[in-house]
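Re: beginner question about structure tokens

> Can someone show what the tokenized structure looks like for a real chain? I only ever see the sequence side.

Sure, here's an example I had lying around. Input first:
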Amino acid sequence: MITIKKVASRKDLNQFLQFSIELYKDNPYYIPCLLFDEKWNLDSKKNPAYDFVETVLFLAYKEGKIVGRIGGLINHKLNAMKNMHQARFHRFDVIDDIEVTKELVEAVSVWAKEKGMDTLIGPIGFSDLDKQGLLIEGFDQPGMFITLYNHPYYKDHLEQLGFEKDIDWIEFKITVPEKVDERIERICDIAQNRHGYRLLSYKRKKDVIPYVRKMFRMYNDSFANLYGFCPLTDAQIEMAIKQFVSLVSLEYVLIVVDKQDEVLGFGLMVPSLAQAVKASKGKLFPLGWLRIMRALKTHTILDMYIIAVKPEYLGRGVNAVIMNEGIKRAIANHVQFAETGPELEDNMNVQTQWKSFEHVQHKRRRCYKKSI
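And the corresponding structure tokens:
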């Protein structure tokens, strides 16, 4: 018999967070979340998204053992902006038992319908900074710190229950070249000389934070029309700064400004933290933080978190300034390859950037939808 229980205590939450780590403990490709961040994300007192988001978490039990988990989420702000009645599911993990998946999805669906929703999509979380998209290709590829990993049967379960594709994201593995591309360097030089673009440099993290605030506000403008995007509030931006800035290496925070010091575009790359976080099972202590600091200093893989340019500056050389410097620094640090984060399959503005490099599309993930 399968029993569904709403997460209602700290013990329940800890079990909810630990379930995926236990489920994938023998899988070499799975990368856990940082448990500290996850507790923060799911805390209505700490995550400012709860000003306009409503959530619920469920655990599934079979013969007294936890066999699945799922979260439900309603973004009332985005629903009002788009005139829709949509709920999301997130943090979905389950054993290979279609009946468990059915009961978990039903629990979220009933909750969402009681709130007046008519559609369920997922997996997709609080914002574009949250992990999203069910992996449907690339199960034999190492995961990234910023993406989901799941077993192949998740796709089969959801499709058997009537879920259909809503949108796909694709990811690329890009080989770092031996030298800088002369064409990109030439475009970069022309853009800087003609338009006065300037790539920021800084020695201390506190010096970059004012620009990071501008960066995320620009990010709101650049991503406004993308699937599922909800603009970050100032409070969410401050939370993102607290979560991300401590995990970045300053040399890979590439921010381009104009003569008035306004942010025109940025690239945020981070030395891969995947194996460091995996070795610590998502815990910062006692050794997790030390492993992360070591990974930031010694690395052969770069994770490309975000590249964004103000819409009105697309095609005006800002991308070239970011790419040119990013390549130089990757070469100097003997990086072998970079992995992109998920990119919407129809976002050609981003994907055309990789044509100059040896690259392969190695992963695909999907957001599903179903009427409820």
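Each token stands for a local structural state, so reading them left to right follows the chain. The longest strand covers residues 359-371.
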